[in-house]
Amino acid sequence: MSAPQLAALARTSEPQTMLRRFLALDAVVTTGNGLAYLAASGPLGQFLGMDQGLLLGLGAFLTLYGAGVGILAARKSPPVLPVRAVIEANVAWAAVSLIALGAWLSPTAAGAVWIPLQAVTVGGFAALQYTALRATRA
Q: Which residues cross the membrane (predicted)?
């Protein structure tokens, strides 16, 4: 992605603001997903073809993780190491989601669509955050 495309997407040309906005978007989506898994693990589990207990655990993790990313996004200048940790965690999440889909999950048709969709979304967050982080160091 080019710098002008990234700036247009972030609606700013200030690298720190871009990074903070991409972290904040990640935080909102991740926390929302986590809260949905916590609040509706039974119905979502049936809909997606996933174990309710797994969704409860993922919901707790995602809610806490999303809150941590939100705290990082709120900093005027997010530190590089925690931002890299978020990027690496997002890449790992995307990869493990796709591996789990092929290796041990048996989702419904909805789950077979949802799992790769969320993996691509999380991978996209990682790519945006990585690009914005590089722009802050340029």
A: 21-40, 52-73, 85-105, 111-133
From the list 67, 71, 74, 76, the residue with the least C-alpha distance to 16 is 76
Residue with the two structure tokens 């992605």: 1
pTM higher than 0.85, yes or no?
A: yes
Residue 77 in tokens: 């200048």
Yes or no: say if 53 and 44 are a contact pair by the CB < 8 Å rule: no
Round to whole Å and give the CA distance between 14 and 112.
Answer: 38
What pLDDT is attached to residue 12? 66
Distance CA 25, CA 19 (A): 10
Task: Give the chain's residues under pLDDT 70.
Answer: 1-12
How far is residue 115's CA from residue 104's CA, in Å, rounded to a whole number? 13
State CA 16 to chain mean position distance.
Answer: 19
